[in-house]
Design a protein that fits this description.
The chain is α+β, with helices and mostly antiparallel strands. It is about 35% helix and about 25% strand. It has 6 helices and 8 strands. The chain has helices spanning about 25-35, 45-60, 110-120, 140-155, 170-175, 190, and strands spanning about 1-5, 15-20, 65-75, 85-95, 120-130, 160-165, 180-185, 200-205. The protein has an 8-stranded mixed sheet with strand order 1-2-3-4-5-6-8-7, with helices on both faces. Strand 5 (about 120-130), helix 4 and strand 6 (about 160-165) form a beta-alpha-beta unit. Residues about 5-10 and about 105-115 have low confidence and may be disordered.
């Protein structure tokens, strides 16, 4: 996905979304840390960033389900030297380890099978983040739309995500894209995300699958 925009006769700004490569992961980790843990100083900010980097590397290597990290690029602050800046990111996968588990059966093998089948139809969207210097330019919406297109390519029928229920701006973005809240996670779940002061809600969106060729 790529767009160009200009205002008041200024040079056009190019913005695009693509799949991340391994060389992007440290910058993605920095954007995550700055967005989700703002204001933290050294050395904790470096520890957070390293932890995010390892998480991204592990997700790419995991073959349990499908996974992709999408990144948004812009030349908004680099028009003179024509450089691109990684300004945002979002993850999409079919593992959905943070989603509520399906109803368990007495047979653990059958339970794991049901869990995996369910995840094949649900794409989980996580870690949507945009560099503070590049917000309010439509990058978050571009990333979310590309995430939905990715889910369609995978044959998924639904998208799921968690969000901070106190963040009305983010909730408004998701509602505008067709997501609806289906529940609020218990408070102890916030500790699993290492963000104990935040209460998370769960949103779902039904999406049409790609038409099958006749």
């Amino acid at each position: 996905m790529s767009v160009r925009a200009s205002a008041f006769g200024a040079p056009a700004t190019s913005q695009s979304v693509r799949r991340a490569t391994k060389s992007d992961l440290w910058k993605v980790a920095e954007v995550h840390t700055a967005s989700f843990f703002p204001g933290e100083g050294f050395p904790l900010v470096k520890v957070r960033t390293l932890d995010r980097y390892w998480m991204l590397e592990s997700a790419i290597a995991d073959r349990t389900g499908r996974y992709v990290c999408l990144v948004a690029e812009t030349d908004a602050q680099n028009l003179l030297n024509n450089q691109r800046h990684l300004a945002g990111c979002v993850n999409v996968d079919t593992v959905g380890g943070n989603l509520p588990l399906p109803k368990r059966t007495s047979d653990p093998v059958r339970t794991r099978t049901r869990l995996r089948r369910r995840r094949e139809k649900i794409a989980y969207v996580s870690n949507l983040a945009v560099d503070a210097a590049y917000r309010r330019r439509g990058l978050a919406k571009m990333l979310m739309e590309e995430a939905e297109d990715t889910a369609k390519e995978w044959g998924c029928s639904s998208l799921a995500l968690h969000y901070d229920i106190a963040d009305e701006a983010v909730a408004g973005l998701y509602r505008g894209l067709g997501y609806r809240m289906v529940g609020i996670e218990p408070q102890w779940n916030s500790y699993l995300y290492l963000r104990p002061n935040i209460r998370f809600g769960l949103m779902l969106k039904r999406i049409p699958t790609k038409d099958k060729k006749k």
